[in-house]
């Protein structure tokens, strides 16, 4: 019976992750379509007679045409999280939230605004596993398997129970003895973090990213820039660092990293859209060096260089990228990059900011 229940929980989680990945791809495509059209870099095959430029883009880039991006979907929300935009660099608390978790880097927890000691590495790892599944029970078997890499000692379950007891004391320091925990709860033969009692920076990051894309959709690039920067400020290192490779956590860690890269690109695209191309150049240089095969980053860097009066450098970036794609992958650059190269060569007026 427990095996069937575990399989059902796993299938449900996989389905949720697949949904979130689809929504992420959709949001990223929305961003790319919006910025390329705002800069008039889209190909003719994508244009429609009813294209219009949002007022804010028209003001930021006179003479350019644009069309509004499709309405982005709201991010999947776990019950109990706040619905505000959460645009500060720190964490807020949702309705009833009493514990704040930071997992966009080494795990940290605050109770009543004060950071708490989360104990030894395995105890911290157990907490990260539970935070990655907020609102959903995680079985003892799954926790043991992840914490001891499939080779648990005979004392593993006893040790896990001790970790849970220690974490409950840390997360609910004022809970009376022998009273049920309201934060780290027991569910069958497993444990669950109550989504109504906690706030997680990874969820806030998703909210900020979505707020940025929605601001672009409204034609408000400055608000989008603020939201993107607020989201990126939450990152302190690798997501779920202690257990990022664990099968239970790895899909979520990968999803968050992909979203982070998309938000970096979105921020730089928005800087270009509002005329801060010289600020975008050094950030995009570092980004493309770290992620040389991401074509959108290369496209943005080339455009930023061109707008900064560096046509030769812009062409050099595009050609170096094309060479790398051929040598490493055996493929050509995307049509968008080929189109941009031609536009730079002919010094197309549409590429100019003003």
Describe the 3D structure:
Helix content is 53%, strand content 6%. Among the domains are: 78-200, Orthogonal Bundle (Arc Repressor Mutant, subunit A), CATH 1.10.10.10; 275-354, Tetratricopeptide repeat domain (Serine Threonine Protein Phosphatase 5, Tetratricopeptide repeat, Alpha Horseshoe). By secondary structure, the protein is an alpha+beta fold. The model is unreliable at 1-7 and 37-96 (pLDDT under 50). It has a four-stranded mixed sheet with strand order 3-2-1-7. Helix 8 (250-273) packs parallel to helix 10 (295-307). The protein contains twelve helices and seven strands. The chain is elongated and about 75 Å long. It has helices at 2-38, 55-60, 121-131, 140-147, 156-171, 201-217, 221-232, 250-273, 277-290, 295-307, 311-329, 335-345; strands at residues 99-102, 108-111, 114-115, 138-139, 184-186, 190-193, 198-200.
């Amino acid at each position: 019976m427990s095996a069937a229940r575990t399989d059902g929980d796993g299938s449900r989680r996989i389905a949720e992750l697949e949904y979130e990945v689809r929504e992420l791809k959709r949001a990223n495509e929305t961003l790319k379509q919006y910025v390329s059209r705002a800069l008039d870099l889209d190909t003719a095959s994508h244009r429609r007679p009813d294209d219009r430029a949002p007022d804010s883009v028209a003001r930021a880039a006179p003479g350019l045409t644009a069309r509004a991006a499709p309405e982005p979907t709201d991010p999947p929300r776990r019950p109990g999280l706040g619905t505000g935009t959460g645009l500060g660099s720190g964490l807020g608390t949702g309705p009833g939230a009493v514990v704040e978790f930071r997992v966009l880097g080494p795990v940290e927890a605050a109770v009543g605004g004060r950071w708490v000691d989360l104990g030894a590495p395995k105890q911290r790892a157990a907490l990260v596993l539970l935070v990655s599944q907020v609102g959903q029970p995680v079985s003892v078997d799954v926790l043991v398997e992840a914490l001891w890499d499939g080779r648990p000692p005979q004392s593993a379950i006893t040790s896990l129970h001790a970790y849970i007891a220690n974490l409950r004391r840390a997360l609910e320091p004022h809970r009376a003895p022998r009273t049920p925990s309201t934060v780290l709860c027991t569910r069958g033969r497993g444990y669950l973090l109550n989504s109504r009692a906690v706030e997680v920076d990874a969820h806030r990051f998703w909210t900020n990213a979505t707020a940025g894309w929605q601001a672009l959709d409204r034609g408000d690039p400055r608000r989008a820039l603020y939201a993107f920067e607020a989201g990126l400020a939450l990152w302190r290192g690798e997501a779920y660092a202690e257990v990022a490779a664990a099968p239970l956590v790895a899909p979520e860690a990968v999803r968050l990293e992909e979203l982070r890269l998309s938000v970096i690109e979105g921020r730089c695209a928005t800087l270009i859209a509002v005329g801060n191309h010289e600020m975008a150049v050094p950030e995009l240089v570092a980004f493309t060096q770290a992620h040389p095969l991401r074509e959108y980053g290369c496209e943005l860097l080339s455009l930023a260089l061109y707008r900064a009066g560096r046509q030769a450098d812009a062409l050099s970036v595009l050609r170096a990228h094309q060479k790398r794609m051929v040598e490493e992958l055996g493929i050509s650059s995307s049509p968008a990059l080929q189109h941009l190269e031609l536009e730079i060569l002919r010094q197309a007026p549409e590429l100019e900011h003003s």
